[in-house]
Amino acid sequence: MNICPKCGLPQQACICEEIVKSEQRIAVNVDKRKFGKLITIISGFKKDIDIKDIAKKLKNELACGGTVKDEKIELQGDHKRRIREVLIKLGFKEEQISE
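The structure corresponding to this sequence follows.
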């Protein structure tokens, strides 16, 4: 049985990621890039969280492309109105998300 080095619980019952999610302060912004294209930038993640996994889930849920750069998630298109409900669905609290 594998034991988590941070919380000391078995890997199946590890609560480290839930604790880290509760400490996040996430900012959502929309930026205009080349040729008038819009991108949604989600920032404020700490290093203890798997940003690539969150980006993958966001891209699947919002049906868009995107990438992870400099501890930020960049999604193609303007998703500011839907991003809050998707992040809440992924386990983040509503008061942690600022737009």
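The chain has a mean pLDDT of 86.
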